[in-house]
Amino acid sequence: MKLVSVIVPVYNVENYIAQTINSVLNQTYPHFELLIIDDESPDRSIEICQQFTDSRIKIIRQKNRGLAGARNTGIRHAQGDYLAFLDSDDLWLPEKLAQHVKHLESSPQVGVSFSRSQFIDGQGQALGIYQMPKLLDITPSHLLCRNPIGNGSAPVIRKEVFEAICFQDNLHGEVESFYFDENFRQSEDIECWLRIAAETPWLIEGIGEALTLYRVNGEGLSANVLKQYDSWEQMINKHRDRSPQLLAEYENPARAFQLRYLARRAVRLKNGKMAVSLTHQALATHWQIVLSEPTRTVQTLFAAYLLRLLPLSFYQGCELLALKLTGISQQLHILRDRFTVKFA
Description:
By secondary structure, this protein is an alpha/beta fold. Helices cover about 50% and strands about 20% of the residues. Strands 1, 2, 3, 4, 5, 6, 7, 8 and 11 form a nine-stranded mixed sheet that branches. It has a two-stranded antiparallel sheet with strand order 9-10.
């Protein structure tokens, strides 16, 4: 039975960390180690972690290095054949690890196995909607434009994949191995996944079930939208030299998809002015996204203008209905996929 190293960076999450740890301990796949990386958390998070007595838990302390730095520390300490990442405010369903181990064991060419994700709110309640990405035949161009993995709590990755993208640097007073780029405080996920897709032979594939519960909260979202775009541009600048052919062909489409994604985040924030502006920027950058993904693009533009023009109370009623209909459609899609796999 393969050992899985579960890496949980911890910083200022005392309201969520107990639930997160329990979601790991409740896994049906028992052969794992849980590496809790204390990124110099200022609150009671680590005190809460210390209350768990499971022998599979190890707490590793370090000076604050951010999310990428905490993940790198976890990778360096990991003893597992597979490495799983779980952000400290997200949750897993009990069969998460078992499903990914099964996927990786049956598909030796797959280096990154990820799942669909279900959105939950700050109290852990299901919002009824899902991340529904492309699961198969994922190319570097698709990853650059749309990031099907979706969030940092979705993937389980072979250790050999990280060995293939490892680089040496001296950022903290000594030469160390790095995997995630610690120059990024946002977009570190997509930057790493892009290196895997563009610079290694490993395939990236998804599982149709929503095994990750991805927490959505609005804390600092407005500022984070702009910071995320700046960080994304930093990632593009880095890969323009590393993958020049890819960027020459897909940089503008990728920028348009990113602006549209950020517009949808602005809609969630109820910032209509920002949502309209970002949608306009997306269309001005690469109007062809209307042809490649007409439904999502028109929905984003429509939602942005409704939010901008309608009274907020009326808009929220429209949004609630739209989310319910979307959730029902997504649930039917997931059930259909599960039925197809079961009887294939």
